[in-house]
What we know:
Helices cover 63% and strands 5% of the residues. The protein contains nine helices and three strands; from the N terminus they run αββααααααααβ. Strands 2-1-3 form a three-stranded antiparallel sheet. Helix 7 crosses helix 9 and helix 8 crosses helix 9 (205-235).
Amino acid sequence: MSIASSTRHSNWRKSLRAQACLLCMAAVGLLRSSAQAAASAAPAVLDRVIAAVNNQPILASDLKEEMRLAVLDPANAGSDVLSPPRALQQLIARALIQQQIRQEDAQAVEPSQAEVAARLAEIRRELPACVRQDCSSEAGWKAFLADRRLSPQRVESYLRYRLEILRFIEQRFRQGIQIPQQAIATYYRETLLTRYAAGDPVPSLDQVAPRIQEILLQQQVNLLFGDWLKNLREQGDVEVLDPALEPPASQGADGEGSQ
């Protein structure tokens, strides 16, 4: 084979290799484009409505957030364990109460920024989960929020809501309740004294009467609030769209209580 022929043959093989490389690159590009098109065509995972309260939707994301916020509820003793059905009942109760507040005088029960800040400081200082993570320090507080995927703004709005509910309950149910002295004496004799062992120093009725009165007053408020919330739910249009989130029959749908 002549040198010219050898050269032409070598150039021809190089040309074939170049064309093969171009074909491979085109094929890879085509595969990438197809994958991107398939990814863009795949349906995105959207939030979904799990319940409706007088046409106000409650979303699955609301439920997840409520479960994360449970750690801030003193009634949970700092535990962040809250079942989805229970969390939904709290969200339903919240929607009903907030709708009622808006119908009345929302500004009358709105807490000040100072009250919210004081409540936040108390949470950071005393909540068991916060104490374990040293939430009194900024680093500890940031770590606490990060671990539970909560933002400072969301925590503040949650505490503001709880203070708003407390004031609403105070104004609507506490005023006008009278605790008779006989009821205080009965509680002292039949409940308080039974908690002391023989030989323990026992406070006099006069010493503990104010505290007993407060306990009995709060019991009456809780009863009135519970009945009111039950009636509010029965009269409203509440629909749970996910059967798995219906509360057990024994639990009922009492919602959040008096906070």
